[in-house]
Structure formats: structure tokens, C-alpha cells
Amino acid sequence: MSKIAVVYWSGTGNTESMANAVVEGAKAAGAEVELFQVDDFNADDMAKYTGFAFGCPAMGDEVLEEDSFEPFFTDAEAKIKDVPVVLFGSYGWGGGTWMESWAERTENAGAKLLGKAIAENAPDDDAIAECEKLGKTLAKEA
């Protein structure tokens, strides 16, 4: 059975809502899923899981959150080679270019990037549905 960790950072609750939708989708597809705020998870914990959903909004100049998420993801990159991964997050400006950079970075680390979802500000019903779909896809591949 798939064992998935959904690891996210959220400042306003938008990315947290998306994380919850990913969890629901993965559970509906039969996976064992655990939800973590990034400060409660570290790269050493990754060996316990068969797949990951990472969530982080765009910050500053279209980058990952720099105090908690970026240091975590830098460590995680060494542990995601050949591992199924999905990415999600919200943005308030810039059109989502941070996600394209993050996806490229994830692929360059050797991960099996299965998909990504973004929402402008608060996720609408379509974005929530896309996150649920990501969770289901990850559950099937992890």
C-alpha cells in the first residue's frame, strides 16, 4: 500500500486548504496518508514514505518560502530520486512562475513528478478538485 507524506507551508491558509484536498484524494484512492506542516517534518523522515506531495505558496520574488520550506526542500532533493512527487501551492502575483521553476528543480533532482496544481489566492472549487486528483494520482503511483 502507498504511504504518502503531504508536507506544506502556508501563511494564509490557502496552501493548507490545498494540502487537505490532496490528503482527501489520496485517502479516497486507498493510500495511507500523513499531513505535516513543514516545521514538523524533516528529510530524515522521508525513508518511511513511498511518495510525497509538497505544498508551498509563491513568496517574495516568486520563490519558495525561505525560512522553513526552502531549507527543507534543499535537503529533500537528495532523497526524491525515482520517487513519485506532486507539487501544489497558491500565489498572489506573477502568474505562477515559481511553480514552473520548482517543477524543473524537482525533475532535475530525479523525482517522478506526476503533476502540479496552483491557485491564485484562495483555491476555488476547480483548484480543490485538481488537488484531490493529484492525491489520487500519487496514491496510484507511490
Annotate the secondary structure layout:
Elements (H helix, E strand, L loop, with lengths): L2 E6 L5 H15 L3 E6 L13 E5 L13 H8 L7 E8 L5 H12 L3 E9 L4 H17 L1
CATH class: Alpha Beta
Which overall shape is indicated by the principal axes computed on the Cα atoms?
A: globular
CATH topology: Rossmann fold
Under the CATH scheme, the architecture is: 3-Layer(aba) Sandwich
User: Gyration radius, to the nearest Å?
Assistant: 13 Å
| Helicity level | 25-40%
By secondary-structure content and strand pairing, the structural class works out as: alpha/beta
N-to-C SSE string, H for helix and E for strand: EHEEHEHEH
Number of strands: 5
Low confidence ranges: none
Question: What is the makeup of the main sheet?
Answer: 5 strands, parallel
First and last CA, distance: 8 Å
**Overall residue-averaged pLDDT value:** 96
Strand content: 15-25%
The total count of helices amounts to 4
Instruction: State the fourth-level CATH superfamily.
Output: Flavodoxin domain
Largest beta sheet: strand ordering:
2-1-3-4-5
